[in-house]
Each structure stands twice: as C-alpha cells, then as structure tokens.
C-alpha cells in the first residue's frame, strides 16, 4: 500500500451487489471497501465473499485502492474471509470491532502481510486505540461511529458531541502510531448539507478522510479533505519566507514560524500532490 497516496474518500460497497461494485469502478473514491460484514445478510455471506474475490480479480480498479471488510474474528465466516482477501490480492483488510491488543495481533496474523485497517467501535477499543495503532501491520484506524453511538447510549439526534472524546482518542492514537485515521459514516444520504458539515468537522478534528455509504457523498468528501488553492498558496509562501530568512525562527504574515510550521506546510503540499 502506497502511504504517500491521498485517501480522502473511503466508500463501503456491498460485495454481493454486482451493480454497485461495477459502478464503484467508475467513481472518484480514493478507496473502495468491498464489504462482507454489515452490508451482507448471513445467508448471503458466502456468495458475497466469492463475488468480492471475482471483483478484485477482474481488474478495473486503477483509479482507487480496493480493500475487503471481513466479518469479525470469532464469527463463522471470518477465517474464510481472511483467506479470500489474501488470495484475491486486496490492498488491505478492514477488520471490525477491534477491542484489544490481542484482537489486533490476531487480525495481523490472519492478514499474513496485508495491511490491516482496524475499526474502533466500542469503548474498550477506544481505550486501547493507542496500543492497536502501534502494532506493526496496522496502517489505519477507522472510527466506527454507529456502533460507538449505541455502546455509549447516546440519544438519537444528539449530534456528535458525545463522540468527541472517542474521535479525539482515535486521531491521537493514529498520530502517535504514525498511521492514517478515518472518520465514521454519515447515515442520512439525502442530507447533503449535513454531510458536508460533518466532513468539515472530521477534517478539523484531524482525520485524513471519511468513510462513506453512498457515491453521492464522494465529491463533498474529497473537497473537504483537500487543501484549497488558497491553502496551497499560503503553504508555498510560508516555506519561501522561512527559507529566505535563513534562520531557525522568523515571521510570516505577522506570526512567528519555525521548522515545525514548515513541516506542516510541506505536508499540505504533499497531500495535494498525492
């Protein structure tokens, strides 16, 4: 997996839905996750697994990365899901409900070299997020906000105020571990303004991108997690000012800047280039 590539939009696609999978090849999502878990009924799990392998093997994914979300460890389908994702040549494996160091170590072992994206969906997972993010082989954390809302007993319609601590812990753990962090899904497909606001909030919290449940959310997501032309111009000007000063600390547009600000500006430019 190319860690320099921008991953802003991460779209879940039911692996057993042939039309949705075919359409996903034409979309502007940075990452597609072929879902074998929540989007698939128990009676359809085996068929969806076969379909995911065929979809990856048939190609046409040059514009994005394709991962597989397996069923959780301990479910009747988990072992075969891991084997299938590995055999298909998926770019990585998304593992739900990672609660502990033991859980993630088992997932990494089963992945056998494929990158693991660990879903943090429970209070235990939130408290263990720093340990999970530090395990070699784990390359991203995903906030499982739907499950977290239920586990935390947050009232419907309360917004995300009750999730702020959990979201912050996930981002902190990812940054400490040097890996990516992705915000959870927005469930109301028809509420474009609400999605845009939540994506902007996720960016403000420090997430690299956001998981999606509908193609109509891709454009707004990519926009929210991409630097604006003004931001890019500011980053270039800041770097130029620092280099022209020829010293460890200088000022730029009335504020003090030093090497850490230059590093942040370079990250902005690298994100746009990716």
Detail the topology: elements first, then pairings.
Layout: E1 9-14, H1 18-24, E2 31-35, H2 45-57, E3 65-69, H3 78-88, E4 93-95, H4 101-111, E5 116-120, H5 123-127, H6 129-133, E6 138-143, H7 145-151, H8 164-177, E7 180-183, H9 192-205, E8 209-212, H10 218-224, H11 229-245, E9 249-252, E10 255-258, H12 259-273
Parallel strand pairs: 1-2, 1-8, 2-3, 3-4, 4-5, 5-6, 6-7, 7-8
Antiparallel strand pairs: 9-10
Helix pairs in contact: 2-3, 11-12
Distance between the termini: 13 Å
Report the portion of residues in β strands.
Answer: 15-25%
The dominant shape is globular
**SS content category:** alpha/beta
Q: What integer is the average pLDDT? A: 93
Largest sheet descriptor: 8 strands, parallel, barrel
- What is the CATH top level name of the largest domain? Alpha Beta
The CATH topology of the largest domain corresponds to: TIM Barrel
CATH architecture identity of the largest domain: Alpha-Beta Barrel
For the biggest β-sheet, the strand order reads 1-2-3-4-5-6-7-8
Separate helix tally? 12
CATH H level of the largest domain: which superfamily? Phosphoenolpyruvate-binding domains
User: Helical residue percent?
Assistant: 40-55%
